[in-house]
From TrEMBL:
It comes from Novosphingobium olei. InterPro entries: HD_domain, OP_Dioxygenase. This is HD domain-containing protein. Residues 62-138 form the HD domain.
Length: 200
């Protein structure tokens, strides 16, 4: 066996189905998974940048809206996990055009508090308070969550940071300001996620 082919064998698991898997296979996969997980923030930043120049008819593009939402939350004294949730709350727009809050919520879930995750997941209905009535919809759709303990927090997020983040003249902080914060928040999940041991 040549050195090269030996290295190749060492680099990848050899099973053809998981039923044949061995501890050696999974040591290789775990090592690669840990390296892959360490660059999650880079992939999130790349995806967030897809919102750059995407106006969708709004006064600011979706990246500026996201940055302004995060800037307002940061200047209001919110903690880092909250600010990162604000930064990423609309990151699902590109792939989750019909359910963007759920896409964003799934991305931030390992790294934010339960309440911050809830805000991200449900902000669409609460944001609707400010425009659903212009589209023939019920602006009070958020009332279905009236009895939820996170209702007030989500209403506050939309009022203070989300519905107010469409001002082209606001002094919005650049993405570079939030990058170190994003890397800190995404460096390690708050708790182990049961469905993502090695993302097999
Ligand atoms: Fe949204
Ligand atoms: Fe938004």
């Amino acid at each position: 066996m040549s050195h090269d082919s030996h290295a190749e064998v060492e680099d990848r698991a050899v099973f053809r189905s998981m039923m044949e898997g061995t501890a050696e296979d999974w040591a290789i996969i775990s090592r690669d998974y840990n390296a892959f997980a360490s660059t999650l923030a880079d992939r999130v930043l790349t995806h967030l940048r897809l919102l750059d120049g995407d106006f969708g008819g709004f006064p600011v593009d979706r990246l500026t809206h996201s940055l302004q939402c995060a800037t307002r939350a940061h200047r209001d004294g919110r903690g880092e996990t909250y600010v990162i949730m604000a930064l990423l709350h609309d990151i699902g727009d590109t792939l989750g055009t019909y359910n963007h809050p759920e896409v964003a919520a799934a991305i931030v879930k390992p790294f934010v508090t339960e309440e911050e995750h809830w805000i991200c997941q449900n902000h669409g209905a609460f944001q609707g308070y400010y425009y659903f009535h212009f589209l023939g919809m019920d602006r009070n759709m958020r009332d279905r969550f009236r009895d939820d303990p996170h209702y007030a927090a989500c209403a506050e997020f939309c009022e203070k940071y989300d519905q107010s983040a469409f001002d082209p003249d606001y002094d919005t902080l650049p993405l570079s300001f939030f990058e170190p914060m994003l890397r800190r928040v995404m460096a390690k999940p708050l708790k182990r996620q049961p469905t993502s041991a090695v993302a097999a």
